[in-house]
Specification:
By secondary structure, the protein is of the alpha+beta class. It has two helices and six strands, in the order ββββαββα. Strands 5-1-2-6 form a four-stranded mixed β-sheet. A two-stranded antiparallel sheet has the order 3-4.
Length: 131
């Protein structure tokens, strides 16, 4: 059984049920390519390079920064990013339904299945599904 990508709740008006989101297609058969040196046939690797010095930067010295002005940055720590992260309710609220013909095809590129995640969610899920 595939692993759920996301777990949360589906809500339509007063009906709420626990759900899980599963991929409807697999990437297992996808062909992957690597960048190579045409002359040697060796695989190429990307490196982070300091813009001013031209030297490769090791992973311990990589960080994030916000540009205050051209070439002037203030470093942002991971804990600072987490402090301003928006809390998710893990709830999908259904406001309305639209005819399939009105859905842009680009939203159908990566299909997913939604299924009730617990036995108790089966009945409310059926109510929402059959709406």
């Amino acid at each position: 059984m595939p692993r759920a990508y996301w777990k949360g709740f589906l809500r339509l008006s007063l009906v709420t049920c626990p759900i899980e989101l599963f991929p409807a297609s697999s990437q297992a058969d996808k062909t992957n390519f690597h960048k190579i040196n045409k002359k040697t046939g060796n695989r190429l690797r990307q490196q982070m390079v300091d813009e001013e010095t031209g030297r490769v930067v090791d992973s311990d010295n990589k960080g994030r920064g916000y540009e205050l002005s051209k070439g002037r940055y203030v470093e942002i720590e991971e804990d600072e990013l987490k402090a301003v992260e928006i809390e998710s309710t893990h709830t999908v609220d259904i406001d309305s339904f639209v005819p399939r013909s009105e859905i842009d095809k680009r939203y159908l590129d990566k299909p997913y299945y939604i299924a009730p995640s617990r036995k108790t969610g089966s009945e409310p899920f059926a109510v929402i599904r059959d709406r």
